[in-house]
Design brief:
The chain is mostly helical. The chain has helices spanning about 1-10, 30-40, 45, 75-85, 90-95, 105-110, 115-125, 130-155, 160-185, 195-209.
Length: about 210
């Protein structure tokens, strides 16, 4: 009877016996065979991949598709922000004076953005007419910033700069919006069209103070 109970324990409860605990299991050949039969399969062995269905993991960095990027316009957005803050914080004028115009290609050639190669490729693919229209628009924004800098440097009273800032900001918003529309349209030259006469009027008003 004792042998029968021991064999039942070996078959049904072996897995629940703590490792290292003492017990009176029969060490007969039958008991050893039962232990081998009931030995749990290693989880590592069960889950080990066979390699038949594995797919190689690509380590190639995906390059974004060629497309114009509005990141370039951040330069002009920074200038506009400084202009709008100049009346309340005169220190902004000093920062504005350090602003320098940079072309689209120059901006992305020195950029570490992943989209930079695609932004350059898309720009190179533009037809000459569209490219000239955009560059003319960017030159107009740069001219506006330079005019504001020259004017604000000569104004001693910060409160007197508000009329200049208002005129400049309104004209700048218009030009910057057109530049964004050009880029977002993929280079539609009509989006880059601006009123040159209206810009000259704004510049004359800025100079007049």
């Amino acid at each position: 009877m004792l042998v029968s109970i021991t064999r039942n324990l070996s078959r049904n409860e072996l897995r629940h016996v703590p490792t290292g605990c003492s017990h009176d299991l029969d060490q007969s050949a039958d008991g050893e065979a039962a232990n081998e039969e009931l030995a749990p399969t290693s989880a590592v062995e069960e889950l080990a991949p066979t390699g038949a269905d594995e797919e190689p993991v690509s380590t190639e960095v995906q390059t974004p598709p060629a497309a114009l990027s509005t990141d370039y316009l951040n330069r002009f957005g920074e200038a506009l922000m400084l202009i709008e803050m100049a009346s309340s914080d005169p220190d902004m004028i000093a920062e504005l004076c350090s602003w320098r115009p940079v072309g689209y290609c120059e901006h992305f050639r020195t950029s570490e953005l992943r989209c930079a190669p695609g932004a350059l490729a898309a720009y190179d693919a533009l037809d000459d007419t569209s490219r000239r229209a955009f560059e003319s628009l960017c030159s107009a924004m740069s001219r506006l910033v330079e005019t504001v800098i020259l004017t604000l440097r000569d104004i001693d009273d910060p409160s007197a700069s508000q009329p200049v800032i208002d005129v400049a900001a309104a004209a700048f918003h218009n030009l910057l919006g057109r530049a964004a529309a050009f880029i977002n349209s993929g280079g539609d030259m009509h989006a880059a069209a601006y009123d040159k006469l209206a810009l000259q009027v704004a510049i004359d008003r800025i100079i007049a103070g």
